[in-house]
Amino acid sequence: MSSKRRKEGYLMIDNRVNEGVPDDMMRAAGLPAGSGKGLFESATISCSHCQALVVLNQDRTRERGYCRKCDSYLCDGCEALRAMSFECKTFNQTVDEVLEATTKQDVSGSSRVILLS
Amino acid sequence: MAKYSGNWTSITHTATANTTNLVDSTYSFFLQGGSATQRLEISEIYIGGESAAALACTFKFSRDTTVAATGISGVNNTLTDASATAPGTLAVIGNVATTKPQRGTGTLLSLSINTYGGVMRWVASPDQKITVVTATQPLGEASLSSLTGAGISSGHVLYEVV
I need a surface site. Which of B34, B65, B109, B162 has the fewest CB within 10 A? Predict the structure, then answer.
């Protein structure tokens, strides 16, 4: 049975042997306050639409972005776009488009006529 | 297919802003597809701080808007499975290049650690690995480098050539 947790990665930041990192730096890096002190462990998610990694803040109370069409978590930026357009374009679809475009270029660039006698 | 460990040793980082040339041998690594159709999947990044005094650093793992070219070296790249056969086209990994890579603003992972012994490890979910596709921007290269702080680190990136 599929689970949302199956899509979670893992992040560990271990500053137990030093004075750690100030909270303002951690917040600027998108990490929760206090995560720069001691041992910090958290689940991460990868945005299905842009592949940005999001460190899950356990204290977050707002609803997290989620796309029902691709059944995946989204980062806040992609969730805002999805809420406006209701469009779902996964990162894998973007990759497929890039690869297809690249393949077409390769084919057209190497095309040649072979004459058989 | 073939799984690799790209690893760097005791690199003293240069803090570099986005869309600015990264300085040779002072960033962890860039990883680039080896061909126009190659696909790489990154499953783990590890950073071990080695500075001799307390120093808070912010590292950015981002896609690059300028990809490295020619004269590439500086990062050890090893098959993790001793019995595996290397693919015909290898991925391109290094921290030295004639054409310098530039980190874009599309950050994939932002990490702050104190490099005075601090350790960071990120592991992807099996079906949510970070992909690098083709050998050109915007998806063909990603790099790990310092945004703030000149910390010293060693570490590795585990990836698979798909």
Answer: B162
